Amino acid sequence: xxxxTIISHDxxxxxxxxxxxKPLSLFVEPTNLCNFRCTPCVHGSENTRNDLKPLRNMExxxxxxxxxxLAEWDGPPLKLLRLAMLGExxxxxxxxxxxxxxxxxHVAERVDTFSxxxxxxxxxxxxxxxxxxxxxxxxxxxxxxxxHREVTRSNCTVExxxxxxxxxxxxxxxxxxxxxxxxxxxxxxxxxxxxxxxGMYRGIADEVGLEKVHNATRYSGNDLVRMYYHDSEKETxxxxxxxxxxxxxxxxxxxxxxxxxxxxxxxxxxxxxxPAKGTKIGSARESxxxxxxxxxxxxxxxxMLLEGRKHENxxxxxxxxxxxxxxxxxxxxxxxxxxxx
Length: 341
Fold this sequence. Notes:
Elements: E1 25-28, H1 46-51, H2 60-72, E2 80-83, H3 95-105, E3 111-115, H4 122-131, E4 135-140, H5 145-152, H6 158-174, E5 181-187, H7 193-201, E6 207-211, H8 224-229, H9 232-244, H10 255-258, E7 259-262, E8 267-269, E9 282-283, H11 289-294, H12 296-306
Parallel strand pairs: 1-2, 1-7, 2-3, 3-4, 4-5, 5-6
Antiparallel strand pairs: 7-8, 8-9
C-alpha cells in the first residue's frame, strides 16, 4: 500500500513552499453516522462516540457553500477533496450528489472517499461511476465472518461486502470507465487471514493492501490496537512496527500547513482524528474557507506546532501519528516569522 501523503513524492518539499495561499487538500465530512461499531474506531467506544455528537449528515446548503467558495478561491484547484472522515459516507443519501457538485465545479484534481462497503447498492455504484468519483478506498475489517461480526458488531457478512465491490467493478468495466479506482485494504492480521483477504479481492480491486492499526491521537486513552487484536503477541508486534516507522525527531504536524478539515456541522478542525473537536479554529458556517485559512486562529495553531507546544492542545498532546508522514511533508525549522504571506 502506498505511504501516506497528500501529494506525490516527486515534488518540492512542503517547507520550501510555505506559506501556502490555499490548502492542497480539504477533508469534508458528509456524515459522522455509521452502521458499524468497529472496535478500532471512534464509533466502537461509548466515550468517543459521545464526542462525535451531534450525529447527523452535513446539510447540503453548507456543502454547496464550501464548493462555491472553493470555486471562487484564486489559484489552482485542490490536489485532493476527500469526502469522508468519521462516518460511513453512504449513510448520507446525498453523497453522490456531493461528488457530482465537486466534479462539476472542478475544485479538485482528485475527489475520493472511504467506505466499509456494506451499503454499496447497485444504484449507488451506478451513480459513483456517472459522477466521476476518482478513488474509493474500502476498509475491510476481517476476511472471516466470525471475526467480522466481532470487530464490526454488525451482521453484515464478508461475502456481502465482497459482492458489492465486485458489482461496482463489473459495472465500471462494462461501461469502459476507469473510475473510480478501487482500493481495498484490511488491517494486518499477522496470520493466514491475510492470504484469505488477498484471495477474496485479487481480480476485483485495482489495488489490494494491508495497513497497520494505530492509536491515532490517543486523546481518549483507548488502546485501539489492543481492542482490535485481543492478542498480546500481535498487539506487541503491531506497536513495535508502528514505533519503528516513526521519525522521532519530528516536532510539528504538517497537516494544518497544507490542509483543512470541515466536519459534518461545519467546524473547521486541524485533524481528521478529532471527534471531540479539540482542534477547532473556526466555523465554515460563519467564515469563508479563505478567511479560515488566513485567519488568526489558524496562525496561532501553526505557531504552536512550530514552537513545539503541541502539548497545549488536548488532541495533539499525545499524538505521534504525524511522525509517520514523509520527509517531504515536514515543516520543522520553518521560521515562525514567515508564517504570514
